[in-house]
Each structure stands twice: as C-alpha cells, then as structure tokens.
Amino acid sequence: MNRKKRNSIVVVHEGYREGYFVEYISQFSPLRVNLQPCYGESATHVLNMAFKRSDLGLRVVAFFDEDFEGIEQRKIESETFKILSARWGTENEILSSTSYKELQGLNSKNKNPVLAVSNPQSIEGLILTILDVPESELEGKSTNVLKGKLDVLLNKVVLKQEDAELIALYDEKIAKHNAEIQKLLEEEPKNNTLLKYHNGKKQEFGRKKNEVIFKRFLANNISLEILQNKRVTIKSLDILLSELGI
C-alpha cells in the first residue's frame, strides 16, 4: 500500500496475546510501533480508541478478535459503525451487515483507522493458521478449543537460558505473594486492600511469565520468511504487515 512517508504507527488492541504478537512482528518493521492496549474491552471500545488516536493525526490499526461478533457485549455498536462508515467513505448498511472477518477488507481507500481482525475466531486461530494447522481443524471451533490447541504447542516450547532465568524469577515473586496472601487470610482476612494488592501482583508476574514463553514460541516458530509467505492467504496478517511497513 502506497502512502506518504511516516515513521510511526499506533496499534490499538484488546488482548495480551495480540500485543505480544504485534511486539514480535514489530522487530521487522522500519517504523516505531506504539501499542495502545484495551484489555478486556469490546470491539466498540477498541475502535473508539482508534478514532481518538486517528484524530491526533496518527496512523492507527484497530486489532481485535473475530469472535467479538458473537458476543453481544463485545460487538461493534451501531453508532460506532456510523463513525467508521463516515471515515472510510463506505455505506453504513454495508459495513454493519458484513462479517467482521470480511469487514477488514472493505477499507478500499485505506482510510484511517485501519482494521485487522484475528481469525478464525481469535489470535490463537491466526497463529495456528500461520503455523499451517489444517483449516479443517480450526474452522467452526470455539475460541477455547483454539486456545487449547495453541497451549499444547506452548507447553512444548524450547526456552533459552535467559528465558528460564526470568521465569524462575517470576515464579519466586509469585510464591512470595502467595505466601503473603495465605498469611493475610489467616491473620487479617478482612484486609481487602492488601489482599487485592498481593493478588494483583501475583497476576502481574503470572502474565510476565506467560509473555516470556509466548514470545519465545513465536521466535522459535515464526520467521519473517514464514510471515511473508503466509500473508498471501491471510488477510489480517497482510494488513498488519503492510501497515507496519513490512
């Protein structure tokens, strides 16, 4: 896609794994890639955040999962479709009646913000497709099933020494906060402030541990050559790579 020269882009995304994936492919990009997470939010929230960043004159990609389409509270709301229609110059009726998987391809004039939709179903489905898992094993499967398939592969990842050291550090911190939680439950069970703090830190280090494993898995299994080959048949991947200047 041809456009005037720029040196940065914002990717607004919903999930942690989407963020890890974009961070991974960003190493191949000549642009400065800035992530704007919207953890646990809806497609409407992601798009509205993308509109705000776009209004600041930034090039923006809104990146979320196909399965949002089937979850009432996470769908794109009618007002958000109207805004997207005005920005893309495409009839609202066409956008709002199109599946999310196909919706990302209706931005024919490459207007801001650009949309990329992980599919089938989710970021897990996208990654499994990149890894050549047969379509018959992915299409029609739930997001949880696809997560399970990817988790089987993640559990087999070969870690480097630096990864193992980080994971050991995070395990130590998790154990420390677990001990504090148990102590509080025994001595101060109503101290909700401290319980919330230690549970939050436990979750934070758990995420950091998962991030190390996930990024090593991507590095071990998905090269730039594989990305370039698979973009031909995976629309969402091609959109992401194109927007990142890859």
Overall 3D form: globular
Gyration radius from CA atoms, angstroms: 20 Å
Structural class: alpha/beta
Number of domains: 2
User: Major β-sheet, in short?
Assistant: 4 strands, parallel
What percentage of residues falls in helices of 4 or more residues? 55-70%
The averaged pLDDT comes out at 95
Distance between the termini: 11 Å
Order of SSEs: EHEHEHHHEHHHHHH
List the SSEs and their pairings.
Layout: E1 8-13, H1 16-26, E2 32-37, H2 43-55, E3 60-65, H3 78-88, H4 92-96, H5 100-103, E4 114-118, H6 123-130, H7 143-154, H8 161-187, H9 192-221, H10 224-230, H11 235-243
Parallel strand pairs: 1-2, 1-3, 3-4
Helix pairs in contact: 1-9, 6-7, 8-9
